[in-house]
Design goal:
This protein is mainly α. The chain has helices at 3-28, 32-57, 62-90, 103-112. Helix 1 (3-28) packs antiparallel against helix 2 (32-57) and helix 2 (32-57) runs antiparallel to helix 3.
Length: 113
């Protein structure tokens, strides 16, 4: 086994383990926000490790994999924020948890009245 193959194996294994732990987290975490945190970890670290492994294994596609990684780092926080806002706006929050400062409720009050 060469050094390159060892790196490919390491990154692929690390990515799969992170995604497996994230899948277990999705099943066992209590609320939608904790589950979204688990999914965002899988999207950033897990998928990026698998993309690095693929780029190292297929050197012709390394630049494409790096561009995909950059795209994941740009789009993942935006998608997670959009999902969190949608979950907040559609959930019945009375009595579920207490926020010390709720910016979104203030923003909703300003737009309504």
């Amino acid at each position: 086994m060469t050094i390159l193959e060892a790196f490919v194996l390491f990154f692929a294994t690390l990515g799969v383990i992170v995604m497996l732990i994230s899948a277990i987290g999705i099943l066992h975490l209590p609320d939608v926000y904790a589950r979204m945190h688990s999914v965002s970890n899988a999207a950033t670290l897990g998928v990026n490790c698998v993309l690095i492994a693929a780029g190292l294994f297929y050197p012709d596609y390394l630049l494409r994999m790096i561009l995909l990684i950059a795209l994941f780092f740009v789009t993942a926080p935006i998608a997670t924020t959009a999902m969190a806002r949608a979950a907040y706006r559609t959930a019945e929050l009375e009595g579920k948890f207490v926020l010390h400062y709720d910016e979104m409720a203030e923003q909703d009050d300003q737009t309504r009245g």
